[in-house]
Amino acid sequence: MKAPFDRWLDTRDKRHMAYGCMTLCLVLILLLPYVLLGLRLLKIQAYEDVFALLKEPILSHTYVSRFVLLCLERASMDVMSFLYIVMRSFVWQELVVFGLWLWLCRDRKMRIVWRVFALTILTGIVAMLYCGVKAYYAQTLMDAMIMMKYIAVILLFMAGIGIVLHLFMLLFIYGFGYLRAMRYTVEEYWEEELYRLMNDTNSSDHQR
Predict the structure, then answer these.
(1) φ and ψ of 149, to 5 deg
(2) Among 62, 38, 63, CA closest to 156
(3) Of 20, 94, 112, 206, which has the highest C-beta tally within 10 A?
(4) Buried b (16+ CB within 10 A) or exposed e, 20-58
(5) pTM of the entire structure?
(6) What are the tens digits of pLDDT across the range 41-98?
């Protein structure tokens, strides 16, 4: 006998759509801290705000902030140190979600989304590296804070594009697809019940 919740995942389409909804929700959860970080960077007006930001827990929730903090801890930087920081800045939750997202991108429905999102990320990374270098070699604190605000705008742009793309896929593609798949269900029969049903069908055919 089927459990009441079995009908939620009893077909291939339901499992596929449910996997898509779950993965997209996790991606949206990972993108939200970048919006909060971008908004927080826009509020920086003085040197004291920078030190106050370093004490806030939001820095531990984004890859970008962890990467920057690890770079600041290094007295010198070479290729191996850079690659180490790139890998060290990841947390296991991000790696799991990234793996789930890559598997979902095999779906044809995600083809345009992952291309636009990947292009947005690559463009944003290049722009943030440029602003980061400019801020590091800035002559005055005001120039450095201006670069930080540019980085905040880039973060908001990247996260905004990602949220819009994945939210659209969640609501109108996978969410709607799951609701449509729920119209169908699988019925299970015991072997004796199946034989009895077949016999009843054959008897009805003979009577006709």
Answers:
(1) -70, -35
(2) 38
(3) 20
(4) bbebbebbeebbebbbbbbebbeebeeeeeeeebeeeee
(5) 0.79
(6) 888 877 777 778 777 888 888 888 888 888 777 767 678 887 888 888 889 999 999 9
